[in-house]
Amino acid sequence: MAVIRERVSATGTKSYHVQVRIKGFPPQTKTFASKTMAKQWAAMVETELKAGRYLPRVVAERHTLAELIDRYRKEVLPQKKAKFIRDQTVHLDWWETKLGRYNLAELNSNLIAQARNALSTEPYGKTGSKTAAKDRVRAPATVVRYMGALSHALNTAVNEWGWMDKSPMVGVKKPKVDNERRRFLSDDEIQRVLVSAKDSENRFLYTVVLMALSTGMRQSEIMTLRWRNVLVEDGADMGLLVMEKTKNGDARTSPLAEDAFTAVMTLRDKAIKNNAGRLPASQLLFPSDTVDNKPVEIRKAWETCRKRAELDDFRFHDLRHTAGSLLAMSGASTREIAEVLGHKTMAMAKRYSHLTQKHLGSVVANMNQRLKSKKEPAK
Asked: At a CB cut-off of 8 Å and minimum separation 6, what does 33 contact?
């Protein structure tokens, strides 16, 4: 039940002190300038205490989103990778500027949805950049990453800190993302890019491009390979690449064969020769000439290679898509493509399904031709 006591200060000002006592809960008290407000608050507290909603809301009122983000930066972010920290810091800084002043009890899905809309429409960019700030807006995939950063911070406050009863991100829709690039190289384009890469001033570019085309590995996976990750048996004509940690967070392997195998073995022989006849297991396959224990920078060399090969609307990552298309046209199933490329789900590999269907169509057509020949009467 609630008890309201009227108090009068030395100056004659009235106030109303409320105490709500319900068995099983700690007493809740608050002071108001109006008796009507005191009664309303008491009724609300009694209802929410009985429903189990009030105490979490009291805790949420004590903290702002800015305080939540600050604690998250100090306790959670340092455990992440450097690139993750860099990106998440940008994302969280934006949310703090936009909604940091609200306490967690005030923060709701409507406020977050309005901020999401601003993320999608407001111009951004740096002064003096080639693309004027007024012409740049965030892509849907970027907005999703911003929302993901806030969502994880809020979930941490709910599940680990007890600052909130539930995350206000629940129910806030993410923009639809269509990142399904379908840019694959034709046979002629493959030859042009390999010739261009071989002519590059960067001594590693040809092997890197060849590996991307033949294995479907991501650029980061290729550039972080060390000689301990290249498994080759004596006299074998192919090898196995072991990726200790991929983008998906899992280790996986990829076969190394044909021209890519030959190119890597050439590099391996040079590495052994330069290391007094022993394989430097911890050395990168493609080390930088200027920075110790860092892979060589290929961005400029790749861009020059792409232009010389006359590849329009083409990114390095599309070499991975080309590998997937080659697998599909060689008869690999969707599951096999997913395994080779390291997709966690079948959905990503399904982008090549039209190519596997084309292959299956030709198989069925050949089968029907043979069936037809068997049905024809002998002359």
From this structure: 14, 15, 16
